[in-house]
Amino acid sequence: MMLWIVLAVIGAGLIYTFYLYNRLVRSRNRVEQGESDITIQLRRRYNIIPNLIEAVKGYMKHERETMEAVTEARTVAMKAQKGSDLGASRRAENMLEGALKTLFAVAESYPDLKANQNFLHLQEEVVDAEDKIQAARRLYNSSLREFNDLTQIFPSNVIAGMFKFSSDDYEYFEVDDPTTVADAPKVKF
Amino acid sequence: MERQIARNKRVTVGLTFFILVVFVVFAAIVGLLTGRLFFTSLVLIGGLAYLGLIYWRGTKMVLRLHKARLVSKKDDPTLYRLVENLAIQVGIPRPKIYLIPDPAPNAFATGMSPESAVIGVTTGLREIMDKSELEGVLAHEMGHIINYDVRVSLINFGVVGIFAFIVDMMIWSFWGDRRDNSAAIQFMILLAAIGGLLVVKLVSFWVSRKREYLADTTGSSLTQHPAGLAGALEKIAQAGSNLHRGRQSTAHLFFANPLPKKSIAAGLMGLFSTHPPIEQRIARLRQMTDLGF
Asked: CA angle, B10 as apex, B117 and B156 as ends, to 5°?
């Protein structure tokens, strides 16, 4: 009689362990998907930039440095994104954002350019691309929060330790306040 | 705040089960005592079929009822992008966006699951809200979608509807069937049934109001900006949210109460309302802002 009870308890314990393990796996998969969703949004921005440069080239003939800064920053970011150094990738993205901000700030002094529908449309697209990157980062952060909770809270932390799930596996993104390129300071030449 | 959300979900799911259980037990008792078990089972099955119909076709029915028009990115890029980016943030496919031609500012969300979700706003709302208020409203609706509120309210109000139907049948059969001595017992059962129906109705309206608060909270956590939603509610409190084509059957799907206030029963209306009072919602949101949300 005692034997059955012991077996039942062990059985229940095993089932619960499986359940927790599966939860950890699903949670980690959500984090990984979050990472690739961010990559998708970053790539979207990369794709818009060449069109943007084309659109401003004719108007901003004397701003070669500004335009080249953007193109270069983009190349660096794309390379960093393919690599495995997360810190370098994030720094490269910040550089790209800075270069874009400067580009839009300089564009403020070209009224012909500002009246150009194509340019305005592309500017909106860039702003939207950054909003989307923010959104993807927020989703990643909240998925990561849930994963970290699971790896740290009892009793799932026991299972997490056993199967090597750790809250050190991933880093949060810092999601800044929405100071988008649209709010770039006006530069007077 | 996440704990608040989790608790709210548990309570409302629990109550929905309560309503379902009460309903089934009650139907069984009625069937057995009145000796009309077969008939009661028929009604039960019919009711489930009705719920199934709503589950599969409900969204299309609601959209047609309110004359909603599909919105494309070209039609309204601002609205489109706001919905799209909120969907990215919660990790669901972008819901279809609809516009309801109505001057009263209001919004709604339907869809049995996040994958089949639909969001709509009235032309009135689109006109008077600024971007942050519009975002607040859309985030609130997104909250409904990811909290599966449409499904919860379907079960709630669907079951209440079937329950009411059974009670109706009982009233009919009581007045017709005076033959035997158990008339007194039948009357008691009838009273109990009506009482039960009242309780279940009150519970389901309470659940609906709780879910509205929950959507406010979820929406605020998405935008990190409760003031936007509060501002939208304040504008609606001014302008009034009564739809020209408002219906009780779809009232719970809307952002603010779409039905005209009946002044006599205004007090009672509180208990039978699908939405909490606007002033309360604004107060809670403003409190979140003050807490340095």
From this structure: 60
